[in-house]
Amino acid sequence: IFGYCIHFFAAILLFFLIHLIYNKKIREGFFLPAYIAFSFYLFSKGYLWFHSNIYFVDMLMQPMFLLQLYLVFYLIKNPEKTGWKFFILTAIVFYIASYTEWLGIFTSFVTGLLLLTLFIIRKYKSYLKVFVVIAVSSSLSFATTLYQYSSINGFGAFKEAALIKYKIRSGHGGNEASE
Fold first, then answer.
1. pLDDT at residue 172 is higher than 80
2. SS3 content of the chain, % helix, strand, coil (to 5)
């Protein structure tokens, strides 16, 4: 049931994201692309099977990634409509996403670069403020992860395990990394 809830929440976020991208209000009526995206995602065989049979952290990252995208598109389309509630929500979402999976850290990095570039080009202060919010929340998330994992067996063991994992996943370690 938990997997289905995550799946349904991601489908709803996709629905809202499509509305936002096309500047359509939900109350304006039926918008076919949003319903098609929602339906294709919701009834996709692969996602349904995985969400019903197993759980791993990547599944929780799907709605977090969509929520990150929604916040970024909202900011880009409405830079003057951001207030402290938006900043707090952005900090929480990017903290949890960065804490949950590497994709959250990657999205935070790319979003930060995008917002910094947009600030230089368009001069909206809200872009710079959200850039700082994302940088701080992602850094705190990384620091939390570093503290928790290194407190188990020390920083040296954490660093060595992270390097081995990097070598295996990147293909740079050769055969000695898998032994």
1. no
2. 85, 0, 15
